[in-house]
Each structure stands twice: as structure tokens, then as C-alpha cells.
Amino acid sequence: MKLKVKIQLSLMMFLEFFIWGGWFVTLGTFLGNNLNASGAEIGMAFSTQSWGAIIAPFIIGLIADRYFNAERILGVLHLAGAFLMYQMYGAEDFATFYPYILGYMILYMPTLALVNSISFKQMKDPAKEFSLVRVFGTIGWILAGLLISFVFFWDSPESREVGMLKNTFLMVAIASVVLGLFSFTLPKTPPGVAKGEKVKIADILGLDALRLLKDKNFLIFFISSIFICIPLAFYYQNANPFLSEIGVNNPTGKMTIGQASEVFFMLLLPYFFKKFGFKKTILAGMVAWTLRYMLFAYGNAGEFAFMLIIGIGLHGICYDFFFVSGQIYTDSKAGEKYKSAAQGLITLATYGIGMLIGFWVAGKITDTYLVAENLHDWKTIWTYPAIFALGVLVLFMVFFKNEKIEYKD
Length: 409
Fold this sequence. Notes:
Blueprint: H1 3-21, H2 27-34, H3 39-64, H4 70-90, H5 94-122, H6 126-151, H7 157-161, H8 167-183, H9 201-205, H10 216-245, H11 251-298, H12 305-313, H13 315-368, E1 370-372, E2 375-376, H14 378-399
Antiparallel strand pairs: 1-2
């Protein structure tokens, strides 16, 4: 891969995830503080990610893969997204805000697959080259959080009080315009499906991979993947509002520790996988989920602030050891014929169905333990995802039979 192309792809990834991290992390805090949204309404806003994940395969499978170059669709989606993001910046109540965020996520979620497609198309050896490009996406997410906390101070108590967090949407709208225009300069990535070739809905949704559920181990993994998204939704939806509410300084910047740990544990994963095997790796991830939420339940912004930092730092184990290991397991079980279908099915199950349930549950529980305006019983709220994660751990430990899975670099 030529240096120019590598730089182009790295900048594309940087902007793609700068855009996501630049507003999604602080969304719950903004909605609760500035639009007076309830926990259920905040859950609705976050669940637009799930609706986007459910609809995305249709946009990719029925349009992108058949008629247009991927880089052109990426450009159009981000330019349209910039307009919707600007409308979110100007919204003054949740009823006005919601249609814009729903439309935005329906446009944004397909871009995650598009940036991967554009990257893979230019690589001779994706197994070695992709991670070196993708890591710039994580850097983009981290930089967005650092800018919000340590440069613009939009998440400080004083700034939140006067509504400065809405500037995150303006920042992201500008970045979306930049990526939208830049996308048209990316290497050409023509449609992947030949003209006249029929594309079945079953192929798009990965339904051909349903036959894998006949395998008891895969069925247990599949069910566990859906259920573990409930505690994951609690983190995405509640972590920033929780840290802000209890008085942690620079909460958005400190949450970037989670993304840094993702990079670290991603590098550690091959060793852990080979040393301890798939089942123990997954179980380590589940233990981390439970431990993280207990740390959140009993930590505070004072002498026990270190517990919160450790809880954020566990994000790498929570995510990589379960979800990345799960992708490897799915790939090994599917066989050559059903690899894409199986990954599509797992994505639909987790980011679609699982997170949809998770955001709804998180919203309901958060509302239940609202003790005063903008004041929650966080100890009780965080106990719920800890129990959910522990329940999934027991389910997986008891019913999943150990089997040898090779980690392919």
C-alpha cells in the first residue's frame, strides 16, 4: 500500500471516529441537563444507534454494494449528516431533537462498514495493515474527548449550566463537512456486486447463518452476546452523566482512558487467547463487566475516585475480550461459505437487538432511581448491570462447553 493511500485511509478513520466520539459520549449529559430529557427519552436517543445498525445492512447491501462507489456514498452520507448535526445543535427540546438524531444515526451507521470496505479494497494484506490504519480511529475518538474536556471545557459544571455542551454538535457538523468533502478524494472503491446479480434479504441480514444456532455452544454464545449488551448500554448511556453529576472534573477527557485501554488490550488479546483459550477469555471479559459496575457503584469523586478510573480503564477488557473474541469465534464456526453472513447476524443481534433492549432497560432503571432533579441513586443503578453481567457469566460458564479455537493474526 502506497504511503499516500495509507495517509488518506488513516485520516478517513481519524475523522470517522472523531465524529462519533465528539458527541456520542456526552449525549446523555447534554439531554438530561439542557433538554430536560427523562431517562427513557435518553434511552430512546441512544437506541437510534441500534435502529441505524438494523437499517445499515440494507443501505450497504441494496445500494452501496450494487450501484455506487463506496467513497462517494461515504461523502454524501457525511454531508447529509452534517446538516442533521447542525439541526441537533439548534434544537431546544427533545421532541425537536429526536427526529434529527434518528435520521443522523440511520445515515452514520452505514459509514462504519463503508470505511472498512474502502480500506480493505486498498490493502494487499488486511490482517497486517488494517490495524495500523484503524488505530487512527481510536486516536480520533480520544482527541475529541480531550478537546471537549481540556481545551474547550464544555463539560465543566459552569459550561454545562449555560448549555455549552451543544457545541459538540457544531464541532462534529464541521468535521462531517470536512470528511464528506475529503471522501471524494479517496481511492475509488467500485460496487462489490456485479450488475444483474441478485441480492437476497437473507444475505443482507445474515439469516443464512441461523443454521449455526443448531450448534449448542454457538447458541449459548449468541444468547450471551445479546444479554451482555444490556450492561454495555448502561455504560454508553449513563457513564458520562454519572461522572458529571457526582462532580468528577473533566469527565469526557477521563473517559478516553477507556479507548486507550481498548488499544492496549487489543494488543494483549492474541497472547491471552492463545494462552487461556476462548472460553476463559470470554469469562475474563464478563468478570470485568461485573467488577467495573461495582467499582462505579461504590466509587466517588473524592477519596474513592481511583475506583472510577479503574472502572473506566476496564473498558478494554470488557469490550475486546468479549466482542473481539466473539468475532473470532464466529469466524471460526461459520466456515468459508457463511463467514460474512455470520458476522452480519452477530452484529444485528448485538448492536441491533441487544443494544435496543439494553438502552430501553437502562432508561427505565435510571428513571426509577431519580431521587431529585438531576440527582440519581447511582449506587443502585450501577448494581443492576453488575447483576446482569454476573448472570450472563454464570449462564456462559455453566452451559458453554470448552472448545479449542485458533487465533489467526
